[in-house]
Amino acid sequence: MTNLAVIGSQWGDEGKGKIVDLLTEKADVVVRFQGGNNAGHTLVVGGETYALHLVPSGILHPEKVSVVGSGVVVDPDVLMREIESLVQRGVKISPKNLLISEKAHIILPYHRLLDEAREKKAADGKIGTTGRGIGPAYEDKASRLGLRMGDLSDMDYFSQRLENNLQEKNCLFVNLYGLPPQDSRTVLEKAKRWAEFLGPYIGNAFSFIQKASDQGRNILFEGAQGVQLDVDHGTYPFVTSSNPTAGAVATGTGLAPKLLHHVTGLVKAYTSRVGEGPFPTELTDETGRKIRETGAEFGTTTGRPRRCGWLDAVVVKTAVQLCGMDSLAVTKLDVLRGLPKIYMATAYELDGQKIDHIPASLKDFSRAVPVYEEFAGFSQDVRAARKLSDLPKEARVYLDRLSEAVGAPAGLVSVGPERNETIVLADYFKP
Ligand code: IMP
Predict the structure, then answer these.
(1) Which entry of 21, 28, 41, 230 is annotated as an active-site residue?
(2) What tens digit of pLDDT does each residue of 256-312 get?
(3) Where in the chain is the domain with CATH 3.90.170.10?
(4) Which of 111, 225, 276, 301 is the pocket-test mutation for ligand 1 (most atoms within 8 Å of CB)?
(5) Where in the chain is the domain with CATH 1.10.300.10?
(6) Fewest C-beta atoms under 10 Å: which of 13, 280, 281, 431?
(7) Is 3-96+204-424 in CATH node 3.30.420.40?
(8) Could you confirm whether 261 is annotated as catalytic?
């Protein structure tokens, strides 16, 4: 039995969908524990492409149970659409294989509106959010104004809290953002539909996970976003509003920290970022454009072109430290093929000093100049590689240096988008 967490070690978009799907084969339960539909995991299964935002990737295996944990914020409209569209494509979904925590907070329509209004008003100072209402929903959770999935079972209670919440929000909409006040009746009408459609899936995820763990079932915890987007440890304020770090497995599901047996860190063979904020190894030149095109680096959720750059081992090392990563799952190695030289930052220079950590101040991080190590490129197609020795020597040198620089061994190397285009080195789910 193993409780395994898969965590993005950079700024998200490390290619989690494929890896989670692959690992799901040996898992019995797959759990999302933070974030919401700001995430977008693309999976290519049997030549079919699926873009999932809220439903855990385990859903494509009908015999596994997918759980949306209490730390997730759920936009019920999005979740309903996602379930409907998967069912239309022949995916089997029922309360037997999908469980939504009654404690997960709801993203209400006015959260989305507030997210957009704020970004618009901030203009140059904007965060570059996905506009999905993630921040405002987590704010309401922390300020104890939020509504939870379980509240859908008691419409009187729901409506009373909604009225209270909207009173405050409408002050902002009308007085600060010059928008019309939001009407609680429209939200209530929607809520009735949510209750009817989603009600059967809502339950006690905490108990389910405890039982599954006690019974020795293999549980896969599917992270969303990446460590540098963590609200506590990332490049604040250019972060999301949850904790994509391993600690959130405990807070977002109720699994005791000591029961997490293995943490694997997703590392894309280069770096990408969407939204604003510092990114020392960003390439704004032709090489950056080539990586974006070859790697299809356009947001699954928003379609935005991602900023691309060289691998930053300082960023990855920070993730290894913060999450206690036992292994790395390196993705998209094939994208680097054909580049004459490859670079990896292993330190920064700041005010003439060499530093091996991310400066705490965002201003300093913006000024940090990467110290690069240079690697020979490789021209050989790596998509057929199934063991390390199938890779060109240059690629192996690059991977070895990454492991050494960040202090964690590679457990898996992805060399193409298909499930089988993978070199598996670690035995994640031990009997
Ligand atoms: P929010 O999560 O929509 O509030 O956005 C906050 C920041 O996190 C923005 O820079 C987003 O682009 C970024 N972000 C949120 N979710 C993801 C993701 O799944 N992948 C990459 N970036 C993300």
Answers:
(1) 41
(2) 999 999 999 999 999 999 988 999 999 999 999 999 999 999 987 778 899 999 999
(3) 3-96+204-424
(4) 225
(5) 105-200
(6) 431
(7) no
(8) no
CA separation for the pair 286, 46 (Å, rounded): 33
Residue bearing the CA closest to ligand 1, atom 21: 12
* 327 and 411 Cβ atoms separated by less than 8 Å: yes
Q: How far is the CA of 112 from the centre of ligand 1 (A)?
A: 14
∠ CA 383-392-405, rounded to 5°? 100
Task: Out of 78, 112, 129, 139, give the residue to mutate to test ligand 1, the one with the largest number of ligand atoms within 8 Å of its CB.
Answer: 129
Q: Is 132 helix (H, G, I), strand (E, B) or coil?
A: coil
CA of 204 to the centre of ligand 1 (A): 28
Does the predicted model carry a pTM greater than 0.90?
yes
What per-residue string of b and e applies to 129-146 under the rule 16 or more CB within 10 Å gives b?
A: bbbbbbbbbbebbeeeeb
Residue 419 — very low, low, confident or very high, per pLDDT cuts 50/70/90? confident
* Residues flanking ligand 1, CB < 6 Å: 11-13, 38-40, 127-130, 132, 134-135, 224-225, 229, 238, 240-241, 274-275
Q: Are 224 and 34 in contact (CB under 8 A)?
A: yes
- E strand or H helix at 422: strand 422-424
Which atom of ligand 1 is least distant from the CA of 39?
Answer: 19
CA 395 / ligand 1 centre spacing (Å) = 30
Architecture of domain 105-200: Orthogonal Bundle (1.10)
Helices 155-171 and 109-122: crossing angle, nearest 10°?
20
